[in-house]
Specification:
303 residues; homodimer; TIM Barrel; globular; alpha/beta; eight-stranded parallel β-barrel
């Protein structure tokens, strides 16, 4: 996790911008250009998503350390969308940003190896040649299948200096249906997942005391956030739910200890800042930058 | 689930062939042709995977009702791999096969809607135009996030007559780490997930008594399979773990009641039958067909 924490320290900004590019977030002038060039097709949708993302990245890359593309919004446009995702990842990395691919992948051992190679490591082609398919810096993971579904990622994390974030306590309203249930002895499912994260990560702890196995903990459950921060000292948190989902700066501050320990995500509030402020659509990226800086200040003031 | 069960009854064959196309499964003559045409690239890998899949589909489509492409093995080759997946799904459907997209997707509400549209429903483009990105018949899903992460799929399941399979008790060795743990009252995590499947599916029960919300239960845990079949009468089971993973016909027979209630997956044993039998590589598809028929007889004899 050192590489991510170094970037956070450099910018003094523990936030990540979620790139969840709904077409309704994109200004008409960009959509019109893509429509003119490619017709009413997936290719046009993917083209305007990529253009939108690139301008957002240009506007934030000197103030925000990381982006988090949410795969669903690219898979929605088929292989054209996946090509836009690939180019978004490459572009963000070329601008020095840390890229957390939000895919929440999960499967049994050999299949998880394939996901690991696809998103963090390298794919084997013919005659031993290897090439990276997506080359993210980090991947979100669902641990329902246990160690078999997480350990295959660890070797790529070590070889290529990458990280993962395992779902612990998610930000959505129904997350408690399973995650809050208590085992005999009053340990919750999310507590247990946290213990597994500490165990999976124990041989990968870096200079800041955090392992390469982080966890997703929602800002919408501040009491849990406080308890989990104390209980799992080597697990770095990726915190969704700030802003549009209702999480406040005082809530997300609970994810930190001594000023580090978490990165806070905001997606819609940043991508749609230009709509909320009813401003010139041509200045959507400036508005995103302003909102990113406002968010940084809002959070850093509480640490 | 009626459309799938109708196909199973037509062929008197409750099995599905997993399309997990590792390059090492593909005969050299196919790989050489793709290498000659596209060089040592993702495009070449995707090309030979598609050719392999199409020949497998041609060889089994009159005896096997369904295929289950495992997304990891396509994502491994980036957007070229996703294009091969798209074409594989289309081709299998054109041959009358039911396509279960094995993606184990999971996320919060609005994002899950995007996955649902991508794999089961239709994607909205510009000016209200809609188009299907992948148009699978079914998608595998991980229910760790609770109802918010499953309910968005139900409306597409109803509108487009599609289904989902939620992970309940998976086939891998470590599945018990979380899934076997007991809540106060001795209910296990997988029991609880099964109860949620019955609840999610209750308004979608078809003519055979099964809902559109199926569940994944591994053949490698036959005791659980027997108990779960009795406990969740409206939940159709997708059963991995037969063959290469160690599940036997006597084990998978426990997933059925009155001859229906489950579909059994085999991937490697069918795709690699030509290697196991050391036969002419040009007859790989014939060998896959023979193994598919052997598997069918093996299982049907126990029902």
């Amino acid at each position: 996790m050192d590489r991510l924490i170094d970037k956070i320290k450099k910018f003094m900004n523990p936030t990540v911008v979620g790139l969840d590019p709904n077409l309704s977030y994109i200004p008409d002038y960009i959509k019109k250009e893509s429509l003119n060039n490619f017709g009413n097709t997936f290719k046009a949708a993917a083209d305007c998503i990529l253009k939108f993302n690139m301008q957002i990245i240009d506007a934030i890359c000197d103030v925000v350390p990381a982006v988090k593309p949410q795969m669903a919004y690219y898979e929605l446009y088929g292989y054209d969308g996946i090509l836009a995702l690939h180019k978004t990842i490459s572009y963000a990395k070329s601008k020095g940003m840390y890229v957390i691919v939000d895919g929440k992948r999960n499967d049994i051992g050999t299949t998880m190896e394939a996901y690991s190679r696809a998103y963090l490591g390298k794919t084997e082609l013919f005659n031993g040649k290897e090439h990276s398919a997506f080359d993210g810096d980090s991947l979100t993971v669902n641990g329902y299948l246990g160690s078999d579904g997480v350990k295959p990622l660890l070797s790529d994390c070590l070889t290529y200096d990458k990280t993962i974030f395992v779902l612990m306590k998610t930000s959505n309203p129904s997350s408690g249906e399973l995650q809050d249930k208590q085992f005999n002895g009053n340990e919750t499912v999310y507590d247990y997942m946290g213990s597994m994260c500490e165990e999976w990560g124990k041989d990968t702890i870096g200079k800041y005391g955090y392992s390469k196995v982080g966890a997703v903990v929602g800002a919408t459950y501040p009491d849990e956030l406080r308890k989990l921060r104390a209980r799992f000292p080597h697990t770095f948190f990726l915190v969704p739910g700030y802003g549009a989902q209702g999480g406040k700066a005082d809530d997300v501050a609970l994810a930190f200890k001594d000023g580090i320990g978490a990165i806070i995500n905001s997606s819609r509030a940043i991508l749609c800042a230009w709509q909320k402020n009813d401003c010139d659509p041509f200045k959507f990226a400036d508005q995103a930058r302003k909102e990113a800086i406002r968010m940084k200040k809002d959070i850093v003031a509480r640490l």
